[in-house]
Specification:
- This protein is an alpha/beta fold.
- It has two domains: about 30-125 and about 250-320, D-Maltodextrin-Binding Protein, domain 2; about 130-245, 3-Layer(aba) Sandwich (D-Maltodextrin-Binding Protein, domain 2).
- The protein has helices at about 5-10, 15-25, 45-60, 75-85, 100-105, 140-150, 160-175, 185-195, 205-215, 265-275, 280-285, 300-320; strands at about 35-40, 65-70, 90-95, 115-125, 130-135, 155-160, 180-185, 200-205, 220-225, 250-260, 290-295.
- It has a six-stranded mixed β-sheet, sandwiched between helices. Strands 7-6-8-5-9 form a five-stranded mixed β-sheet, with helices on both faces.
- The longest helix is centred in the last third of the chain and has 21 residues, at about 300-320.
- The protein is globular and about 65 Å long.
- It starts with a helix and ends in a 6-residue tail after the last helix.
């Protein structure tokens, strides 16, 4: 019996561990650096998670993780690179929810979101925030919604990509409001206009908006998700305000591989990711973004993606949102 197999048995303590290790030995994974595509700009929330994950996973796998930013077209440009990559576990992509939403709003997609990719795991998730300028009179979400329902209302909501755009559509639809959508090319310009009162209300991540709130320029009215965030413990959830539709709305940071990647490799990546994200140092990194670790199994994650896509599609159908 080789030392590799002995180590596997000791680490796993079960026949399943031996089976997994035999499979990994077959693929000799990993034996070279791993390329991680981040299809968004450097310095953002996804980029931060990717680099911190990469540093720690490199130590556990014994191979470098090279993070490569390929921004553009709501993540489509960079993600396309992975769709056509060899399915061997050496080219991965870390995306947010727009990965699932893009086919609902984008015509002529250059890849099939489900046929060309297989999920590895959700690394972490974070609630979104609804914010207004601190110069506006709205102190609560109910005050804003009441004002927005008036026939002569002239209010707008700003979003920075397809995910937050659709969440803004949710607010308009389920709240029965009278607001107009305004799209921005990033969270920073969005929050600049929200703080200036140009866009009445903005939908973005807590990471993107926190500096504006800390500086007294913006006011959070509510967050999505099932519970309040320790970052802003006094800010209620939309569920608390009587809108349970937002209960499972989060920004997710999720890892995908090209379709056809062997499952033992996917499971190895998921197992090591779980060890990384639940470590105290990584939990601290995530907490700075009001994010929490997830690291669900490969099967759980892919099943969750199917449910999430059905949820977003039902919303798109309800508001008659068509691909453009």
């Amino acid at each position: 019996m080789t030392m590799h197999r002995v180590a596997c048995i000791v680490a796993g303590g079960a026949a399943l561990a031996l089976s997994t290790c035999n499979a990994l030995a077959q693929y000799d994974y990993p034996n070279q650096p791993i390329r991680l595509i981040v299809p968004y700009s450097a310095g953002g929330g996804t980029d931060t998670v990717a680099r911190k994950w990469g540093e720690r996973i490199s130590q556990r796998l014994g191979q470098n993780v090279i993070v490569e930013n390929r921004p553009g077209a709501n993540g489509i440009i960079g993600t396309r690179v992975v769709a056509t990559a060899k399915p061997d576990g050496y080219t991965l992509v870390l995306v947010v929810n727009s990965h699932l939403i893009n086919p609902l709003v984008q015509k002529d997609m250059p890849y099939d979101t489900f046929k060309d990719f297989v999920g590895v795991t959700m690394v972490a998730r974070s609630p979104l925030a609804f914010l207004v300028s601190s110069t506006l009179p709205f102190k609560t979400m109910n005050e804003f919604m009441d004002a927005s329902r008036k026939p002569n209302a002239r209010y707008s909501y700003g979003s920075s990509e397809n995910m937050t755009r659709l969440v803004g559509n949710m607010l308009d639809y389920y709240g029965k409001l009278n607001i107009v959508s305004v799209s921005y090319k990033g969270g920073a310009p969005l929050m600049t206009d929200v703080a200036g009162g140009i866009a009445t209300i903005g939908t973005t991540s807590i990471l993107t908006s926190k500096a504006f709130v800390d500086g007294g320029r913006a006011r959070p009215l509510a967050i999505t998700g099932s519970k309040r965030t320790p970052v802003w413990p006094d800010v209620p959830t939309m569920k608390e305000l009587g809108m349970p539709e937002f209960n499972e709305v989060y920004t997710s940071y999720s890892l995908f591989a090209p379709a056809g990647t062997p499952k033992p490799i996917l499971e190895k990546l998921q197992h090591e990711t779980k060890a990384v994200v639940f470590d105290s140092s990584m939990r601290s990194v995530l907490a700075e973004q009001a994010a929490e670790p997830v690291a669900d199994t490969v099967d759980e994650f892919n099943a969750a993606n199917e449910r999430a896509f059905k949820f977003w599609k039902s919303l798109a159908d309800a508001i008659d949102l068509k691909p453009i």
